[in-house]
Design goal:
The complex is a heterodimer of chains A (286) and B (272). By secondary structure, chain A is of the alpha/beta class. Chain A is built from 11 helices and 10 strands. In chain A, strand 1 and strand 2 form a beta hairpin. Chain A starts with a strand and ends in a 6-residue tail after the last helix. In chain B, the strands form 2 sheets. Chain B has a 6-stranded mixed β-sheet with strand order 6-7-8-3-9-10, with helices on both faces. A 4-stranded antiparallel β-sheet of chain B has the order 2-1-4-5, with no helix packed on it. The chains are: A alpha/beta (286), B alpha/beta (272). The complex binds adenosine-5'-triphosphate (2 copies) and magnesium ion (2 copies).
Chain lengths: 286, 272
């Protein structure tokens, strides 16, 4: 499903002394079935932005349109919100705020049950999802609060993917995962995208942005700065320097080599293998 | 003068009876050392951190901090020397504003009231959070929470600093800034010991020593250059090698012969 923001503003604690304007006139179209990465400095408004999509936060003004369901400051009709949340799944930046049941298995099967799936089927879905995120069966009957940080994140992700949302929003889903877990999780998200889901992912990991992203959105101080293809972000040195975004190491290497006479096209470089393929095309290695 | 900050000998621990996280773990950390601990999810890193600050008790064996065996009597006095930044910063906030929160820590560290305001500003500034002193810690963004948690802990001027994935939600530049900050503190105080639990290999490359934990056991324990040469072992325990090590391998596999395992070295060799 596509997600469209128009003239969206969001102010925290409005009309109090603590009032804070976190999003300013956001106009943005997130394409259907894209893998859209959202990047930006600490406090730039990324988490605030994605929470508008499933109406966890309601726009102060302007709208979000999720495939025809419109969220604006007048949404009060709960029926609409439930329909919206069935289609839009969100994994929080801090997974602990998403976990609440007595056991891991109950926690993950809660979602489908809540949307009317029977007990047995919900448990089946939950087991399947837990398996996909790398949670061992020995942890199924544990309290989710007695898990390690990375285990909690995996369980929180499982809880959302059981719902098979049309839009899957992930707020720093690889923070705290071990390297192998992080790689496997990215592969899982890619597979989910291939099945038709739109993925919106907040991350600071630029390697993931160029490896897996179809689009990237840059926020700074509550404003939308740029939306482009991932490699385009790194073509113009000045612009990303001023955004305090780091280059992925493969791009950094490609640029250094180009300064020394190589002819690598940056848009072909998405990981180490593709970088080496580009290096091999140089005359000197023929 | 004691030269060990931490001596862990043959400890056994589990959260409940039929659970064993550590069956026989031994480890030493020297005063002034900067050690990174890496390991897969659930390997026992945070558990180890909690044992070091006496939040949980070992079943067998002992833990010495600055030469003293950790026990119920000395834990409060020892805690004055230990600063810990927890994996989830929300578990550490007690004040209703960022300012109060840092002040609470200072009170516990017995800092005089008249000095507090200056210290609070100094550390809030060091982590770029000076503008947020009047905000509620719960109402900050993820990265801002982590910065405040770090400031609060550093302000107490600990001799032993334990950081449990405390920069996991910062952008790479933010991560570097915090690393520069702790490096500076180590310059000022050569006795400051740092244990940093992390999944960030770039950070681990900068450490004096890297300890790799797998299912509650130490599997590698050496200088980063040595640890990251063990690719097979690291893969086996779900970890990874740094970018430049990997690039070196893939190049060699493709018949482009290189020796360097650092970024600049590779640039040089490829451009000869
Ligand atoms: N509940 C709240 N009340 C008031 N201000 C808030 C609240 N939540 C966030 N803010 C402020 O809004 C701004 C944007 O926060 P947000 O959480 O969207 O940032 P972010 O881009 O996700 O940052 P990070 O990368 O650190 O997670 C920040 O300056 C933050 O302090
Ligand atoms: N409070 C608890 N009660 C029972 N078991 C726990 C508790 N906390 C953690 N565990 C278990 O102990 C093991 C080690 O957990 P720990 O939190 O130390 O891992 P970790 O290495 O810090 O992992 P991560 O990288 O995911 O943070 C895990 O299998 C976890 O499920
Ligand atoms: Mg955030
Ligand atoms: Mg942990």
């Amino acid at each position: 499903m596509p997600v469209v923001f128009s003239h969206l503003n969001y102010i925290y604690s409005i009309k109090t002394p603590m009032e804070f304007s976190a999003l300013k006139d956001i106009n943005l179209q997130i394409e259907d079935n894209s893998f859209t990465m959202i990047v930006g400095h600490t406090g730039s408004g990324k988490s605030t932005l994605v929470q508008q999509i499933n109406a966890l936060l309601i726009p102060t003004s302007g709208i979000v349109d999720v495939n025809g369901i419109v969220v604006d400051c007048n949404v009060k009709k709960l029926k609409n919100i439930k329909e919206l949340r069935k289609g839009v799944g969100l994994v929080f930046q801090f997974p602990e705020y998403q976990l609440f049941e007595e056991t891991v298995l109950k926690d993950v099967s809660f979602g489908p049950k809540n949307f009317g799936v029977d007990n047995k089927k919900a448990t089946e879905l939950a087991k399947e999802a837990l398996n996909l995120v790398g949670i061992d069966e020995s942890l199924f009957d544990k309290s989710p609060f007695e898990l390690s940080g990375g285990q909690k994140r995996r369980v929180a992700i499982a809880g959302v993917i059981t719902l098979k949302p049309k839009v899957l929003i992930l707020d720093e889903p690889t923070a705290g995962l071990d390297p192998q877990g992080s790689r496997e999780m990215m592969k899982l998200f890619t597979k989910i995208k291939e099945q038709g889901t739109t993925i919106i992912m907040i991350t600071h990991d630029m390697d993931n942005v160029i490896r897996y992203g179809t689009d990237v959105v840059v926020l700074a101080k509550g404003e939308l700065i740029k939306k482009c293809r991932p490699y385009e972000l790194f073509l113009d040195q000045d612009s990303f320097n001023s955004l305090s975004i780091d280059e992925p190491l493969v791009i950094k290497m490609a640029k250094r080599l180009n300064q020394n006479g190589y002819h690598i096209s940056l848009e072909n470089v998405i990981d180490i293998d593709s970088l080496v393929q580009e290096i091999k095309k140089e005359k000197r290695y023929e | 003068m004691e030269n060990k900050a931490i001596e862990i000998s043959e400890i056994e621990f589990g959260y409940y009876k039929d659970q064993t996280i550590f069956s026989n773990l031994s480890l030493d950390v020297n005063v002034g050392e900067y050690v990174c601990v890496i390991g897969h999810n659930g390997s026992g890193k945070s558990t180890l951190a909690k044992l070091l600050v006496g939040l949980n008790e070992v079943r067998k064996g002992e833990i010495k901090i600055f030469g003293q065996v950790l026990n119920e009597e000395n834990i409060y006095s020892l805690r004055k020397k230990i600063g810990i930044v927890f994996q989830n910063p929300d578990n550490q906030f007690i004040g209703s504003t960022v300012r109060d929160d840092i002040a609470f820590g200072l009170e516990n560290a017995c800092v005089k009231h008249e000095d507090m305001e200056e210290i609070i500003h100094e550390y809030a500034k060091k982590v770029n959070m000076e503008e947020f002193l009047d905000k509620e810690p719960g109402n900050l963004s993820g990265g801002q929470k982590q910065r405040v948690a770090i400031a609060g802990t550093l302000a107490m001027n600990p001799s032993l600093l334990i950081m449990d994935e405390s920069t996991s939600m910062l952008d790479p530049k933010g991560k570097r800034e915090i690393r520069e900050l702790t490096n500076m503190l180590r310059q000022e105080n050569k006795k400051l010991t740092i244990i940093s639990i992390t999944h960030d290999i770039d950070e681990a490359l900068q450490a004096d020593r890297v300890i790799v934990i797998n299912q509650g056991e130490v599997v590698l324990n050496d200088k980063p250059e040595v640890v990251f040469k063990n690719e097979e072992k690291l893969k086996e325990v779900k970890l990874d090698i740094p970018f430049s090590y990997k690039l070196n391998q893939v190049l060699n596999k493709n018949n482009i012969k290189v020796d360097s395992v650092d970024f600049e070295g590779l640039v040089k060799e490829l451009c000869q």
